[in-house]
Design a protein that fits this description.
The complex is a heterodimer of chains A (219) and B (420).
Chain A: H1 3-35, H2 49-59, H3 65-70, H4 72-90, H5 93-103, H6 112-135, H7 137-142, H8 145-166, H9 172-189, H10 197-214
Helix pairs in contact in A: 1-9, 2-10, 4-6, 6-8, 8-9
Chain B: H1 3-15, H2 18-26, H3 32-36, H4 38-41, H5 50-53, H6 55-65, H7 67-74, H8 83-95, H9 102-106, H10 113-127, H11 132-143, H12 152-166, E1 179-181, H13 185-189, H14 193-205, E2 209-210, H15 221-225, H16 228-244, E3 249-252, H17 256-270, E4 277-280, H18 281-290, E5 300-306, H19 320-329, E6 330-333, H20 359-364, H21 367-375, E7 380-383, H22 386-398, E8 405-407, H23 408-414
Parallel strand pairs in B: 1-2, 1-3, 3-4, 5-6, 5-7, 7-8
The chains are: A mainly alpha (219), B alpha/beta (420).
């Protein structure tokens, strides 16, 4: 397989396969969760489930002051790499072009140097997250293979994308092909790993807020 | 796999619903729940990380409800659920978790970890890996009617003392009363002043109320140990009496988990909506205050603070009422850091106080309460849970602190103006 054939495979059939697994996988997983349902609450309500649930979806973005003091590193670095990932994935001109090509929807991009800087900051933050995972006793106690796997498949597209953009190391088509391949790996693993939190956190926060809201507590 | 273990796995499987599946799908192992749990913050031992405590439930979910888990199981890569594993988890699930719910307020993806620990206990109880003290308390609750083995004659004797000391009649088995008052054994045995206090307050406010000779115990070991069948039976005793006496409402005493048991879990345990209301004593007192039926005189002296019992505040929704009442009684009130819905547990709820093997750790983690009180130089502490009260008194003694612990209901009773 030549360099160009490799690139056309990852852009064509490879991308299609990954997209199908990603989209169907995520839908099936969400369906699996919601299908389990939950029992109706027979206790007299002291507040609204719906408003409690919706409230917590947003309120969990701002930690309580004691929580911030105690978990400062996790919160700050977590925010940095999540915002960074958002900028790099959704506000980089070539990515928006691809999204427009597939879905027909588009929006304006951030200037490339800003995205480039965001990419560097995100990679540093991800490296810090890994270091924290290895060094911190609680993080170490919780760690399983899957934690390192999802870290790796999040980090790889960042590195390959950065190298492809700056044309470092390999010929451009190969770099681009590797970048796309790494994203396909992420997409394929997404529905089967904790990467699913990107969708399920909305359900979890809603349930949490609803359970508390029913009792009249703002969680 | 032994039959019992199989039943335990089945019991865990039964507990899995959409919230559990979404929580377990969302956890990214960030470790923030550890920072929210006094068992971790005061010991620094990662084994106390809250999400770790639900591992038995998580394994069952992963292996039975997810594609990857089933694949791993087929390939022999899944971590099995064994008796040794559950035995190891016993102290994590019971000794070092008071189901205070603080971790559930902090988790960034929104996991209600406490909701899952409550469910994990259902499986643990079936497996038999349960602390002895909690088994004893539960057995006594079922056979005798009280986790401390208190029978009605003991209550009757206390009622006699109280009537003599306070000069108010304590009604028993009065049909058609507005309220059926429940008690905890701890109040009957250690704080009978509480009975005197409600007799005085209800006389003052002209409230009709009664105790029941058949169901006076409000606590529910069934929910602490995690056996819904037992929990349901204990709730049903109260429901039957409330219906027999045709009361409008049942009052949960100054006890945290009793309120959760009858107010929030109760109807779900017995499988029907109640035909009467359930209120915490603080809710009733605050209603009386609003209606202007409580006339008080004088204020408490010294700098006082309030400890929110977890099941009444964060897990129960009774947060404003105690503060409204305290306003009437305390001039120098001070809120502890994190007071209110983010308050720290005393360290002995959720059954921990009945577990002997947890004695050391519960006193160690009391350090958190100590720090909270010292941060505001509290000269006295008011609370509304006799279990918190006993443990806080224990903790204060352990740390050589001379600070009185007051009951809010009793404090209110002391300040009522005598009727003419």
């Amino acid at each position: 397989m030549t360099e160009i054939e490799f690139l056309s495979w990852v852009r064509g059939p490879g991308f299609q396969i990954a997209s199908v697994i990603f989209v169907f996988g995520v839908i099936v997983r969400l369906f699996e969760i919601l299908m389990l349902g939950r029992k109706a609450n027979l206790a007299e309500a002291n507040g609204s489930e719906m408003s409690g649930g919706v409230r917590t979806i947003f309120s969990r973005m701002a930690p309580e002051s004691d929580t911030f003091k105690r978990s400062r590193f996790t919160i700050v670095v977590g925010y940095i790499f999540h915002i960074g990932l958002f900028i790099v994935i959704f506000l980089f001109a070539p990515h928006i072009l691809l999204i427009t090509e597939v879905t027909g929807v588009g929006w304006s991009a951030l200037p490339t140097p800003i995205v480039d800087m965001a990419a560097v900051i995100t990679m540093i933050a991800l490296a810090a997250v890994l270091l924290h995972r290895v060094k911190d006793p609680v993080m170490q106690y919780l760690a399983r293979m899957e934690d390192y796997l999802v870290w790796l498949v999040t980090f790889l597209p960042m590195v390959t994308g950065y190298l492809a953009f700056h044309r470092m190391g390999l010929p451009a088509p190969s770099l681009l092909a590797l970048h796309i391949l790494s994203i396909e790996l992420l997409m394929v693993l997404f529905p089967f790993t904790k990467l699913m939190h990107a969708f399920t956190f909305i359900l979890s926060r809603w349930y949490n807020g609803a359970i508390a809201g029913y009792k009249g507590v703002r969680s | 796999m032994s039959a019992r273990l199989e039943q335990a796995v089945h019991a865990l499987k039964e507990q899995i619903d959409a919230p559990v599946a979404s929580f377990l799908s969302s956890c990214v192992h960030c470790g923030m729940c550890a920072d929210a749990c006094l068992f971790y913050t005061e010991t620094g031992d990662p084994k106390y990380t809250p999400i770790v405590k639900v591992e038995p439930l998580r394994r069952v979910w992963e292996q039975e409800f997810t594609f990857m888990g089933q694949l791993k199981k087929k390939l022999g890569l899944a971590k099995p659920i064994t008796d040794e594993f559950l035995a190891e988890w016993e102290s994590k699930v019971y000794d070092s978790c008071t189901m205070c719910g603080r971790c559930s307020m902090v988790c960034p993806v929104g996991n209600d970890i406490t909701y899952m620990i409550r469910k994990t206990r259902e499986g643990m109880a079936v497996s038999g890996h349960v602390p002895e003290g909690l088994v004893g308390a539960t057995t006594r609750a079922v056979t005798i009617g009280s986790p401390m083995g208190v029978k009605f004659p003991a209550l009757q004797a206390q009622i006699k003392h109280v009537e003599k000391d306070y000069g108010f009649k304590v009604p028993v088995d009065v049909e058609g009363a507005e309220y059926l008052c429940m008690l905890s054994s701890m109040e009957i045995m250690n704080f009978p002043e509480y009975i005197g206090a409600i007799a005085k307050i209800f006389d003052h406010a002209g409230v009709s109320w009664t105790l029941s000779s058949k169901a006076f115990e409000a606590t529910n070991s069934g929910i602490q140990i995690g056996v819904s069948d037992i929990a349901s039976e204990l709730v049903q005793r109260i429901v039957s009496e409330a219906e027999r006496l045709k009361v409008k409402a049942v009052i949960s005493p100054e006890c945290g988990h009793a309120y959760t048991a009858i107010r929030w879990e109760g109807p779900n345990l017995v499988g029907k909506k109640f035909g009467f209301k359930v209120r915490h004593i603080l809710e009733v007192l605050d209603e009386l205050r609003k209606e202007g039926r409580l006339v008080t005189e004088g204020m408490e002296e010294g700098r006082l603070t309030y400890h929110d019992p977890c099941q009444i505040g964060r897990r129960g929704g009774v947060l404003e009422q105690p503060r409204n009442l305290i306003n009437m009684l305390v001039s120098d009130y001070v809120e502890m850091p994190d007071g209110g819905k983010m308050n720290w547990c005393c360290g002995a709820g959720g059954g921990v106080s009945t577990i002997e093997s947890a004695d050391e750790v519960r006193l160690k983690v009391f350090q958190r309460k100590k720090d909270q009180m010292e941060a505001v130089d509290a000269e006295g502490l008011i609370s509304a849970c006799s279990n918190c009260r006993i443990h806080i008194e224990d903790g204060l003694e352990e740390y050589h602190m001379d600070i009185p612990v007051l009951s809010l209901t009793e404090t209110l009773a002391e300040h009522l103006v005598d009727k003419e």
